[in-house]
Design a protein that fits this description.
Radius of gyration of chain A: 19 Å
Order of helices and strands of chain B: EEEHEEEHHHHEHEHEEHHH
Structural class of chain A: alpha/beta
Oligomer: heteropentamer
Number of strands of chain A: 10
Strand content of chain B: 15-25%
Strand content of chain A: 15-25%
Order of helices and strands of chain A: EHHEHEHEEEHEHEHEHEHHHHHHH
Shape of chain B: globular
Bound molecules: adenosine-5'-triphosphate, magnesium ion
Strand order of the largest sheet of chain A: 2-1-3-10-4
Shape of chain A: globular
Number of helices of chain B: 10
Largest sheet of chain A: 5 strands, mixed
Distance between the termini of chain B: 36 Å
Chains: A alpha/beta (about 300), B alpha/beta (about 260), C mainly alpha (about 280)
Helix content of chain B: 25-40%
Helix content of chain A: 40-55%
């Protein structure tokens, strides 16, 4: 393998992560792949901008922030879209029983996560503002600590924090439901434009590997149970326990390769779902004063090419 | 009474050799005594003084003050050091008033007292100067004023006049004699000047080095004679004085070629 | 051997008053001001920054131009950022750092001196300090929240912990530079232990303590972002983090500039304090 | 006035050799060991920890019991964690800290001393140091990634920056404690500037420098997690953060314990170094 | 030749008052001169020495060495300080060898030389000791050995024998005379002992304080007489010596009540 590539990933549980652990991405593409773990999408983008990382896994919120600032990257594979793997959990005894009780409460989500975006969107859709509902942007371990202590009333989180919060609280609304209310999100594999231009074959093979694992996951539930080798491999790679990983996988909302490549998600240029979500997210972030510009079109940041080539 | 009995001190030297700095020295300092220690450089004078002051434990022997063993330093024994130990961050007057401050004397009172003492040692003009702005001799005089300020029972003075010119030295000697005479304080005084020792001491001990021991003791009354007559010159020129000077000189010279040179 | 001259008349008659005075030739800097050079350097650095952005050596995303940062500063100054005005951000951070620094100074100096003097104090306190101090604040953030909540207490505690150790360590080291002779002199003048402590040990150790405080304040600012990760809604650290997460580098630069300015103010005060408190350094 | 005794015979005859020697009564600790007290304190603290978990004062999720942490340690020791063995994690962190510390010492001491001595060095370097040093590493982490990439360079640079300033500041402060007289004496003995630097300034400033190095190493460990946030695949900071993401508090505690242990090792070495290099402190 | 012309020094005192430490002092120190400065404490002796050594700029006047103005300290002028300036982190022998180290002399050679000098000052046994393990007088002798080691053209000595007992002092005086005689070095020597000044100096200047000025100068040859006869006692007892002593004594005493006391 004389060609080198550095890929940034995060600790999300995805079926394809097993291929990171067992080296299948490398064998399938023939590239020397250096996988690096990042803690947030913002860090991934910083690394892509430095030129040290060519391919990365990110959520739609940091993606929107980065592209709005002019970073030349493209999403070539949608790893997942809003599912029930992320949810707003409220603390027992917080007095929140429905969405109507949120006024005057303290809620939290991890900074620049899609959760944070969805939580803010949710509040807006309820006709509330950040003046009436306090939204704290804190990392997940800290959310769990503050939740347990009773300092916050709810948290919009994913696993393992989700499982942890559910022990003393209940799910108020899931990410999927918020998406249906008009604030969809996704997570995607992105590639820097520069690298994409000369390495389309790599991206195709990379996508094929993901496809293979996603197919296995939808087909064969026992191969992905808590006792399975796959779950153990994930735990070893990402941390946590096999049970945590298996549970997290089950809450994913995955798209088929065909659906992704269609005009609805990546193939529709400006009208494709991913580009739309980016634009909406950017608009929202601008309203929030987090970013200063919204581009007229986000079509340049999505491409169905790699996926089409796998079919 | 301050009683030193059989005091011995060994220091740890280089290469595991001990340095025998003080060898079974016995000495009593009673009410009204003005004891002067004389001896070659390195013979243990400062070591003896440090032990009395409580800065140094003895290897053997004991030092008691009015019957109780000396445990550590205390305000009952005022010390004038061979080395400059003024506080660089305090003005001269505050340095002199330091002991009074420790004793809880009010600022006004202690400054009055300190100013008076500074006048006595000829530094009235330098009350607000800092020690580093003084000459070596002036710093020494500040140290003397500081030790006098608290009026300790015993004054321990380590070559206090070593850095002074002859005139200032004579004036300081007279000042010290008058303080001693007026208050009846006990004084333990180190000097390397035979004349000074003879002129000041009611008891003079002559020490010799390696190991540091007392080789001669004298009871003298030149100082009392001075108090009566106030005539320095006649004392210095008296035959007894000259004879004693030569005698002590011989003792010191007979001992060693150069202090410290012999093993 | 003859008297050459006894020029009591020839040389008497004092030189006219109000003469230029001299000082012993010092060592190193001794009073010579470096402000002009420092300002020149600052200007050169800003010019370099401007040039780098002008020549597009670095993508705008990662090194905004001075003009952009200034513009962003004005915007934030007028409109605030992330739900609070600039004044509120700065005020919140200054309050936290200031309070934590005050607490660290008030506890760190006496405890450090005590540890330098007393075997028991040293033995008992050494273990916990040596243990907690090198721990990365990020690693025990959740613990701080569990124990102290997400309010000001935990943020200030975190800052306090970061600042306490350098002060305490330098106070300890300072005690070792008290000369034995000076301590002996004070004891002979009747100093009780606490007087020795206040009048001899403290001033002797002061130069080292002040260095420790300067370092501590730097460490404090450095920990600000970590502290304000704890569920903040305002503070410069919070501002920087929110901006960094959205790759708003210009806002990050505004935050950095504000921290620099504040830190510079602190540092200036401390240097002044050093000049006032320890003018004798190197002269003892 | 008569000669009382000329006891040259009575008192001569030396006392038997190999006598107990004495030392001037020191000040403060002076050599008395505090190890026993420290160990007792450590044991007491662990007992307290054990008790707190036994009585369930804090949820297990946030304060695992000593036994659990020990068990987890054994597991990690045997199986590694997050794709690397324990040895690799520790090795990677020690390498980074060690290299950064070495660089900080090698540059910080000479530059700091130079800044204490030379107006130009002081003027030019003061600005950038006063500027960067209080900046929270977390705030410029993205910039470091962008400028220096995600390799070892950016991690080591971050640690270096954190450690450089305390060392440089204390070296500067150390110069101010060089006594003018001592420097003058050396100059009169014909010391060229660099000899003055090496033979007078450096040793005089050494006690303060060593304190600075101790503080710097603490700061370095404290910055480790931040440094290893940058796309690491191993390192104790990385281990802690990976574990924290999964709320694996017992693993976090293992990481904390390892950091404490390593830091203690460093600190011990430095104390030893201090004893060897500056035995004269307080005696000059 | 070292030429001091019209040297004046003002220090900044407290409360904006200047201290006039040196007032238009002129002095030439030529090849083979042994110049001794004598005067009350605080009269500006150390100030003059510091100016010659290059530690202190002049307010007015100039100091030139062989025609070139003195810019700062240098190895051509060796200094023995009034204050202890030994390096606490070096052993006695390394302290003595310091100047040789600066000059690039090999370790073996410089230790040999230093050991020899330590023998001369009577401290051969203390080569491996640290300064804080020595007595005050011993430290002073180490300082003298250190200044001699580099064989400077001019030796500037500020009360070098102040802390020494009379025996050691005499031995050190003789040592210094022999060094001076053997090498033809120029020496500028400060003392507060009139006898020492008369015995050592070929030129003696007497200074008076506030402002510090030269009030008398003498050309003497007692020292040369000593070199010929090696008889200290006869010199000290000679009537010329006694007369001069009284004369200088009178000059010093006539001046002020207590040096520094007058405004
Ligand atoms: N750095 C300084 N700042 C202010 N005044 C000073 C300074 N150094 C010396 N002086 C003053 O200058 C005068 C002369 O001091 P100098 O040290 O020359 O005296 P000296 O003749 O050496 O006395 P001694 O025999 O006591 O050493 C004194 O009045 C002293 O207070
Ligand atoms: N701390 C120490 N460690 C080792 N040896 C010491 C120490 N202090 C003093 N000595 C040794 O003890 C001996 C006596 O020293 P001391 O200071 O008592 O002499 P001294 O009579 O005061 O001499 P001087 O007149 O020169 O001051 C000397 O040989 C000295 O080297
Ligand atoms: Mg002595
Ligand atoms: Mg002087």
């Amino acid at each position: 393998a004389d060609k080198k590539v550095v890929v940034g990933y995060q600790t999300d549980a995805l079926p394809s992560s097993v291929a990171i652990a067992n080296g299948e991405f490398a064998t399938a593409t023939g590239y020397d792949i250096d996988f690096r773990k990042f803690n947030s999408g913002a860090d991934v983008f910083a690394a892509i901008a430095s030129g040290d990382v060519q391919v990365g896994y990110v959520g739609s919120s940091p993606f929107a922030a980065a592209t709005s600032r002019g970073l030349a990257v493209k999403a070539f594979y949608l790893a997942s879209i809003s599912g029930i793997d992320e949810a707003l959990v409220v603390r027992n005894g917080s007095g929140i029983n429905s969405l109507n009780d949120l006024k005057g409460k303290k809620l939290a989500a991890a900074p620049v996560s899609t959760d944070h975006y969805q939580l803010l969107q949710l509040i807006k859709s309820l006709g509330l503002t950040e003046k009436t509902v306090q939204v704290l942007a804190i990392p997940q371990p800290e959310i769990v600590a503050a939740f347990n202590r009773g300092d916050i009333d709810g948290g919009f989180v994913w696993d393992p924090a989700l499982t942890e919060l559910k022990k003393t609280g209940k799910v108020l609304i899931t990410s999927k439901e918020v998406a249906e209310k008009g604030a969809p999100t996704f997570s995607a594999w992105v590639v820097s434009d520069k690298f994409a231009k000369d390495n389309s074959a790599f991206l195709t093979q990379f996508s094929s590997v993901i496809n293979k694992y996603y197919a296995s996951f939808t087909r064969d539930k026992t191969a992905w149970s808590a006792e399975s080798d796959n779950a153990k491999a994930l735990a070893k790679l990402l941390g946590g326990t096999a049970e945590q990983q298996a549970a997290a996988l089950n809450n994913l909302n995955l798209l088929t390769p065909e659906a992704q490549a269609s005009a609805a998600w990546l193939g529709g240029g400006e009208k494709s779902g991913a580009a739309q979500i980016l634009k909406e997210t950017s608009q929202f972030l601008k309203e929030q004063g987090k970013i200063s510009e919204v581009l007229p079109s986000y079509a340049a940041f999505v491409t169905p090419d790699a996926l089409k080539a796998t079919q | 009474m301050l009683r030193i009995s059989n005091a011995s001190v060994f220091f740890e030297g280089r290469q595991r050799k001990e340095i025998h700095a003080l060898d079974r020295v016995s000495l009593d300092i009673s009410e009204g005594d003005f004891v002067v220690a004389l001896g070659a450089s390195g013979c243990g004078k400062s070591t003896l003084l440090n032990a009395i002051a409580g800065f140094l434990p003895l290897t053997e022997g004991s030092i008691t003050l009015n019957g109780r063993p000396v445990g550590g330093p205390g305000a009952d024994r005022g010390v004038v050091f061979q080395k400059d130990t003024l506080l660089p961050w305090s003005t001269v007057i505050d340095n002199v008033a330091l002991g009074l401050k420790f004793a809880g004397v009010s600022r006004k009172e202690r400054h009055e007292k300190a100013a008076e003492l500074l006048g006595l040692v000829g530094l009235a003009d330098f009350a607000r100067s800092f020690p580093h702005e003084l000459s070596g001799g002036m710093r020494q005089r500040v140290g003397i004023a500081r030790a006098l300020a608290t009026e300790p029972d015993i004054l321990l003075m380590d070559e206090p006049f070593g850095a002074l010119d002859s005139l200032t030295r004579e004036q300081m000697q007279e000042l010290l004699i008058s303080v001693w005479h007026r208050t009846g304080k006990r004084i333990f005084f180190i000097t390397h000047s035979i004349e000074e020792a003879l002129f000041l001491g009611t008891k003079v001990i002559v020490m010799s080095p390696r190991p540091g021991r007392v080789v001669a003791r004298y009871d003298l009354d030149f100082v009392r004679r001075f108090i009566e007559t106030q005539d320095v010159r006649s004392i210095h020129l008296s035959p007894e004085f000259a004879n004693l000077r030569e005698e002590i000189r011989d003792i010191l010279h007979s001992d060693h070629h150069l202090a410290g040179a012999a093993a | 051997m003859t008297v050459l001259e006894l020029n009591t008349t020839a040389e008497k008659g004092t030189v006219a008053s109000a003469k230029k005075t001299v000082r012993p030739i010092g060592f190193g800097l001794e009073g010579r001001s470096t402000t002009a050079i420092s300002i020149a350097t600052a200007i050169a650095l800003i010019a370099l920054w401007w040039l780098a952005t002008e020549l597009k050596l670095v993508p705008r995303l990662f090194l905004p131009s001075p003009a952009e940062v200034l513009r962003q500063f004005v915007t934030i100054f007028n409109d605030g950022y992330a739900g609070a005005s600039l004044g509120e951000h700065v005020g919140a951070s200054l309050f936290r750092i200031g309070l934590a620094a005050a607490l660290a100074v008030l506890t760190g100096i006496p405890l450090g001196l005590l540890m330098g003097l007393n075997r028991w104090a040293k033995g008992v306190l050494d273990t916990p300090i040596e243990f907690y101090w090198p721990l990365p604040p990020l690693s025990y953030l959740p613990l701080m929240i569990i124990w102290l909540g997400i309010g000001e207490t935990s943020k200030i505690s975190l800052l306090f912990l970061a600042m306490f150790a350098p002060i305490c360590l330098s106070a300890q080291a300072g005690v070792r530079s008290v000369s034995v002779e000076r301590a002996n002199a004070a004891k002979s003048l009747g100093a009780k232990p606490w007087q020795l402590f206040i009048h001899i040990v403290l001033p002797s150790a002061l130069p080292e303590i002040l260095t420790g405080v300067r370092i501590a304040i730097g460490v404090g600012w450095g920990t600000l972002v970590a502290a304000e990760l704890i569920a903040s809604t305002r503070g410069i650290g919070f501002l920087i983090m929110s901006a960094a997460q959205f790759l708003a580098t210009d806002v990050v630069f505004v935050g950095i500039a504000i921290i620099s300015l504040c830190a510079f103010g602190f540092s200036f005060t401390l240097r002044l304090l050093e000049k006032i408190l320890v003018p004798w350094k190197g002269k003892s």
